[in-house]
Amino acid sequence: MSEEKQNNKKINRDVLKWIIIGLVGFVIVILIFGTGMFVGGMKARFSYRWAESYHKNFAGPRGGFFGDWRALPSPGDFIESHGTFGEIIKINDSDFVIKGQSDVEKIILITEGTIIQKGRDTIKKEELKVGDRVVIIGSPNEEGQIEAKLIRVFDEKEITMVPMPSRPFFFR
Amino acid sequence: MRKDYEKLFSHLEPPEPPAGLFDRIILAIKREQELQQTKRLLFGFLFLLVASFIATPFSWSILINQIESSGISYFISTALSDFGIFIVLWQDFSLAILESLPITGMIAFAISLGMSIFTFRLFLYRKRLLLGYLMQSFA
C-alpha cells in the first residue's frame, strides 16, 4: 500500500516537473517572441520615417533612388535605428551623413552630449573627416535621423583587428 | 476402396514437431524484426549524417555572412573597448545589438548544429548495433 502511494507520489512529481518545464519554456518563447516584435517594430517605424523624410533629408525621391517606396520592404530590409556603422560621406555643421549597410545613407546628428572617441582619446566634432569609418550608438528621431550618443572612429588597423570567425574552407 | 479408412487414420500417429521448434520460430521472427529495425535505424542515421554534413558548414557560412553584413561585431567591439561608456549607454547598446542580430543565420545554424549533435549522440549510443550491421552486410 505504502509502495503504491510512493509510486503515485513519484508520478505526480514527474508530472509537476514537466508542467513547470513546459511553463518555463513557454515563458521563454513568449519573451523571445515579444523582444522580436518590439525590435522589429522599432526598425519598421524608423524605416518608415527614414523613407518618409528621404526627400527632405537627401533631396531625392522618397525611399531613395532605388525601388518603389510604396512597396512593403521585406523584414531584412528594415533599417537599424539605434546603432549603425559606415563611412562618412558628408559633414555639415551639426550633423554628418554616413553610407552604411547596403549603401543606405543616414543622417547622424551631433549634440552637446555626443561622445566622439578615436582610439583612447575623445576628439571634437571638427576632427571628423570625410572617409572616416565610424560606429554610431544613438536613438532615432521623428525625421528618420539618428541622434548620436557615441561616435567611435575606427582607423584601418582597428577595423582589421575586429575578430571574425573564419568560414568553412570550401566557402572562402 | 477400403471401407475402414476412418479406422486407418485413427491409428496413425500425428507427426510431432521437433522439440524447441516454436521457440526457434519466435526467435527467428524476433531476429528478423530486429534486423529490419536496425536497417531503418542505419538509413535514418546515414540520412542525418549526410544532411548534417551538408547543412552545418552551409549554415555556418550564412551566419558568418550575416554577422559581417550586420555590423554586430563592430557594436560588440565598441562595447568592449569603451566599457565605461557601455555601462552608461547600455540600453542603446543593447538595442543596437538586438537590432543587428543575425536571426536567420542563428536559427539555421542552431538547427543544423542540433541535428549534428543528435546524429553524433545516436552514433555513440548505437555504435555497436550500427557497426555490427555494417560488418555483417559487407562480410
Descriptive overview:
The complex is a heterodimer of chains A (172) and B (139). Chain A is built from 3 helices and 6 strands, in the order H-H-E-E-E-E-E-E-H. The longest helix of chain A is centred in the N-terminal third of the chain and has 51 residues, at 2-52. Chain A is 36% helix and 27% strand. By secondary structure, chain A is α+β, with helices and mostly antiparallel strands. In chain A, a hairpin with a 5-residue loop joins strand 2 and strand 3 (105-118). Chain B is mostly helical. In chain B, 17% of the residues are buried. The mean pLDDT of chain B is 87.
Key traits:
heterodimer, A: 172 residues, alpha+beta, OB fold (Dihydrolipoamide Acetyltransferase, E2P), 5-stranded mixed barrel, 36% helix, B: 139 residues, mainly alpha
Blueprint (SSEs and pairs):
The complex is a heterodimer of chains A (172) and B (139).
Chain A: H1 2-52, H2 54-58, E1 83-91, E2 95-99, E3 105-118, E4 121-122, E5 133-140, E6 146-154, H3 156-161
Parallel strand pairs in A: 3-6
Antiparallel strand pairs in A: 1-2, 1-5, 2-3, 3-4, 5-6
Chain B: H1 5-11, H2 21-70, H3 72-81, H4 83-88, H5 90-99, H6 103-138
Helix pairs in contact in B: 2-6
Number of domains of chain B: 1
Named CATH architecture of one domain in chain A: Beta Barrel
Calculate the terminal CA-CA distance of chain A, rounded to whole Å: 68 Å
> How much strand of chain B?
under 5%
State the order of secondary-structure elements of chain B, H for helix, E for strand: HHHHHH
Mean pLDDT of chain A: 80
Q: Label the overall shape of chain A.
A: elongated
Summing up helix and strand content along with how strands pair, one would put the structural category of chain B as mainly alpha
Total strands of chain B: the figure is: 0
How confident is the prediction overall: mean pLDDT of chain B? 87
Q: Categorize the overall geometry of chain B.
A: rod-shaped
The low-pLDDT segments of chain B are none
End-to-end Cα distance of chain B, whole Å, is 59 Å
Number of helices of chain B: 6
**Computed CA radius of gyration of chain B, to the nearest angstrom:** 33 Å
